[in-house]
Design goal:
Elements: E1 2-13, H1 16-22, H2 24-45, E2 49-54, E3 57-62, H3 65-82, E4 88-100, E5 103-105, H4 107-118, E6 124-127, H5 128-133, H6 136-139, E7 143-148, E8 157-162, E9 181-184, E10 188-189, H7 197-212, E11 218-219, H8 222-225, H9 235-242, E12 246-255, E13 258-267, E14 272-282, H10 286-299, H11 321-334, H12 339-355, H13 360-375, H14 383-397, H15 402-414, H16 418-431, H17 436-448, H18 452-465, H19 471-483, H20 487-494, H21 502-514, H22 518-538, H23 548-551, H24 562-575
Parallel strand pairs: 4-6, 9-11, 9-12, 10-12
Antiparallel strand pairs: 1-3, 1-4, 2-3, 4-5, 6-8, 7-8, 12-13, 13-14
Helix pairs in contact: 1-2, 1-18, 2-3, 7-10, 11-12, 11-13, 12-13, 13-14, 13-15, 14-15, 15-16, 15-17, 16-17, 17-18, 17-19, 18-19, 19-20, 19-21, 20-21, 21-22, 21-24
Length: 579
């Protein structure tokens, strides 16, 4: 493999998922027009090489730092002049890259991608090494942004921003919504034990869930608001990025059997603290406390909640605090959707039910571990029966929780009760107000049932609710794009953090093959086989041969239409997997 020094430009559309949810056809047309009439010509003009497109993003290699920076500034300047509805963030880094065919890898690429995330909307963010390489006439256009701690980068990176005028370039607060909009930021863990972060996160999540039950509110999903943990952005800047009018922030200090929770409700535009309170309680009162906090927050939003307070769902989920802690630990593992974490999550949920056999949501998560194993082809033959029995017990304890109802749909699906699953997912959607995660999983259920267009619509709406969604939603959307025949978009979604498991590798391989990208398909196939072997070994399941029948035997049972699964299998065969 060749190594060389290169200037890497990473560009991405801001709030692309939200734009798609509002008008898919117009957004796709705008993206194509932008690329064909502006972005691609500018790359050519400055002698750049388009490495790849990643959904709405792009990666470009330049041999000249000056060319890379001038290209970025020209693109952003012309977009601003055209008053385009598309807004970009662009990051640029100069570093050593590894060249493999047409693709590039290495720390230089990773840093460029991280710098893109630091850029202002409509702006360009460059590393100090790029800044020092520029001619003086370009340097004056940049302002020193100080050092930034970038995800998965070991040391802080000194950054510079263009343009120097930062004001007014963020996403405007959506004050025109029909409902007041609110985001709950992750509560700070003030306990001496830093491992108690999951406890304060659980507190924040439960308040989000409580607020989501009010029809008078638009509540930003957990993964979008949690994106701003430990940020140095101001409250106004966070609100701008999330597009909300109100922020809730707080802290949790736990000492022995006592807990102190401080909460503030802030009007983002003015920075005014509308309401603040401190609660000191025994842990046994935690759920009543959560309910009280939620009610207090909503009550002070002027004129918004008169008709909905009585509809608040305030069921106390468990009297056993240890059971609650085990649920939170198990959920954090289950969200990884991989073989090792799923097995550990199952043990936590089983212990939680031993302590509190009437804790409805634990049944839901335990049933889900069986379903995840079925997705990964790691389940026992009796897994569908177990999943359905456990899910029904949870629904019997609480028939109003959308998450529990969602899981019941998957239990029906895994048991091959397709019509019941379809009806259950429809019912769950009717219960959902702001629960983006549950909505997205309903969408995936429709995909497995063969309703591709409906799946796309539901998942896009979930992404609108959760613009900074977790990798699991890209994992779902990548599969939706594959079945819609949008192979390049599927590839863009499934690269990176969305490659949660070997099923993602299988669909990625099939997408490369269906797009006639043969060399990349073979590379993805090798990754799939390696990932699949590791999953099987982790469960003590020996691999008899590297053939489609042995590697994918467990996958196909989750798809209602054999032709859907065959589309994935056909792609694997085209990539070179033996029958």
């Amino acid at each position: 493999m060749e190594r060389r020094l290169a200037a890497i430009l990473a560009a991405d559309i801001v709030s692309y998922s939200s734009l798609m949810a509002e008008d898919e056809s117009a957004t796709l047309q705008s993206l194509q027009d932008h690329r064909n009439t502006l972005f691609f010509p500018k790359v050519d003009q400055y002698k750049g090489r388009l490495v790849k497109l990643m959904g709405d993003g792009a990666l470009v290699e330049f041999s000249s730092v000056m060319d890379a920076v001038q290209c970025a500034i020209d693109v952003q300047t012309e977009l601003e002049a055209d008053k385009s509805n598309l807004k970009l963030r662009i990051g640029i880094h100069l570093g050593d890259v590894i060249v493999d065919g047409d693709d590039v890898y290495g720390n230089g690429v990773n840093l460029a991608a991280r710098l893109e995330g630091c850029a202002n909307v409509g702006g360009v963010c460059i590393s100090s090494v790029v800044f020092e390489s520029l001619a003086n006439q370009v340097k004056v256009s940049f302002v020193d942004g100080g050092e930034e701690d970038l995800k998965n980068i070991s040391r802080p990176v000194h950054v510079f921003h263009w343009p120097t005028e930062k004001a007014g370039r963020s996403i405007p607060i959506r004050s025109g919504r029909e409902k007041p909009s609110i985001a709950v930021l992750p509560f700070a863990n003030m306990s001496d034990d830093k491992d108690q972060q999951y406890f304060s996160d659980g507190m924040s999540e439960d308040i989000i869930t409580g607020l989501s039950r009010f029809r008078t509110l638009f509540v930003v999903a957990r993964n979008s608001s949690f994106h701003f943990r430990d940020t140095e952005l101001t409250e106004r800047e966070i609100a701008d990025k999330l597009g909300v009018e109100y922020l809730v922030e707080g802290s949790v200090r736990r000492a022995g059997n006592r807990v102190r929770i401080s909460v503030q409700l802030i009007a983002a535009e003015t920075g005014k603290h509308i309401w603040a309170e401190r609660f000191d309680r025994d842990l046994e009162d935690l759920f009543a406390l959560q309910d009280e906090v939620t009610q207090s927050i909503v009550a002070v939003l002027p004129g918004r909640v008169q008709h909905d307070v009585a509809d608040r769902i305030g069921q106390k989920p468990t009297d056993n605090m240890k059971s609650y802690e085990l649920l939170l630990k198990g959920k954090a593992l289950r969200d990884g959707l991989n073989a090792n974490d799923n097995a550990r999550a199952k043990s936590y949920f089983e212990k939680a039910l031993e302590l509190d056999p009437n804790y409805a949501r634990v049944y839901m998560y335990l049933a889900d571990t069986y379903v995840v194993d079925m997705w990964l082809g790691l389940a026992d033959e009796d897994a569908p029966t177990h999943a359905l029995d456990i899910a029904r017990q949870g629904a019997g304890l609480d028939n109003t929780d959308p998450y529990i109802q969602d899981q019941l749909g998957y239990a029906y699906l895994s048991a091959g009760l397709w019509d019941q699953a379809d009806a259950q997912f429809q019912k769950t959607l009717s219960l959902i107000e702001n629960e983006a995660e549950s909505m997205a999983w309903c969408g995936y259920g429709f995909l497995l049932l063969g309703q591709h267009e409906k799946a796309r619509d539901v998942v896009l709406e979930a992404m609108r609710l959760d613009p900074l969604h977790p990798p699991a939603l890209d994992w779902i959307m990548g599969q939706v794009c594959f079945f819609m025949g949008h192979y390049d978009e599927a590839i863009g979604k499934l690269l990176g953090e969305a490659r949660l498991n070997s099923l993602a590798d299988a669909v990625l391989t099939a997408a490369y093959a269906q797009a006639a990208r043969d060399r990349e398909a073979k590379g993805a196939l090798a990754s799939f086989i390696d990932h699949r072997k590791r999953e099987l070994v982790s469960r003590g399941m020996p691999l008899e041969s590297e053939k489609i029948g042995t590697l994918t035997a467990g996958f196909s049972r989750m798809w209602r239409n054999e032709s859907d699964w065959e589309k994935i299998a056909s792609g694997l065969r085209s990539a070179g997997l033996a029958e």
